[in-house]
Amino acid sequence: MSADGVTPFSAMLSRVVATVDRRRLVAVALLLIAVILGSAVLRHTRASSWAGDMETDYCTLVIDQAAASLADFLKDYEDATFQFVANQDLNRLLLEYVSATDTYEVAPYNQAFSNFLEGYTFSRRGVYDAVFVDESNRNRKALTMRESLPASYIKAFRNSRIYEEIMRADGKAVWAFGEDCARAGMNCVIVGRRIKHLFAQKPMGVVAIMIDADELARVVNDYLHDHFYFSVGTVKANYTVIVDREGCIISGPNAAGSSRDEEPSLLRELYPNPPVGHGEGRFTGNLRGEDVLVTFRPISDTGWRAFVPVSLAGLYGEESSRSASAAGLSIPLVGGLIAGALAATAVFLFLSPGPRSRRIAHTHSPGHIAACGDEGLQSARRAAEAGWVQPERSDPDWLGQLTDKEIQVLILMSQGYSNREIAQKTYIAQQTVKNYVSCIYSKLCARDRVQASLLAVDAGLNLRDYRDFDCRLPSDK
Asked: In the CATH scheme, what architecture does the domain 8-20+356-476 have?
């Protein structure tokens, strides 16, 4: 504390208050708070978005790999049908079969056909049966891998849409859901290929392999079980489904059969209208009151897609999506709204005019400055050279209660000068300055130096030159 009773901090505060409007100080403080809050919200949003995107991308990556695993599984059976085209022994076997005169004596050919497929699919699960039919002789008995296919089914297969599609593909593998299998009580998908003679390219017939449709979803779930990082989220394996190009579920829990109106009703609730026009994507759904993220990916060369639901609780936290939907506003959104409101208020306070900004004539008229003589002109010149711009405003009523010396002391106080510095500038004793300060406090009902300085700043005294009042006589008061 200095000898005149004023601390350095108080003097510094007085200088700041003297040069900055109070409402602008409030505006700057509000703007600073808005910037800090906005930065925190932005960091939170970026962190949450990055974490959510990372988890979602991880799910997509693993589900892509599971779909690729299913594609490899199906490719094995495509290769089995291709062997009847590329393998000379098998191709010759089928040529001899379709060239035989006895349409019912097929035992030797059937044995070789069955042995090959049984050996090829020995380590490949899910095969229900396989068949080869002569396309030129519908009366010829078909070759079968096993004895599980009834003659009525084989006859229906010859007349089916799938058979026609395989014929149109003319040698390319075709995948389809076995509607005729379903009518026969079998839940099967079929891969078929039209077989031609290896050298003469003469069409001979169609080979088709029937595979348990539930095996498709099982392959996807097995891959996810072995490779999915379950702390990220729980795969709802009971609701993993394979959907054909028309949007029908062909593989999943009870996807076909007499119980379609029981458990499959939950499937229809989750997949009311599987997005047929999109090969891949994701959407949110609900399973037994639990929010899930459903990612769907194409199975290459089939036109099918795998739909895999994953619990949102593991992806985004147990209560995140539920609390957000219940509240209607997320924490980052609320924080952003508050930050925006603070910033708008700060701009309004900073740009809006003060309560004393009425444009009124200058307190010192040109005549009064001229009456002060050369010293008054020099004072005005010094103010102009210093770049001061005197705002045009009216003097407050309380200014009339002060003497010239008290006004001088108040001006210097509002400009941040200490009592000692005021005494040196006005050529009076320091104790006299203290007496003037006490009188100012009493007349203005001010508690301290800061409050008196604030009143002076509101009146614009901090922008005026104390020497302008040297020529004012007591009689002027």
From this structure: Orthogonal Bundle (1.10)
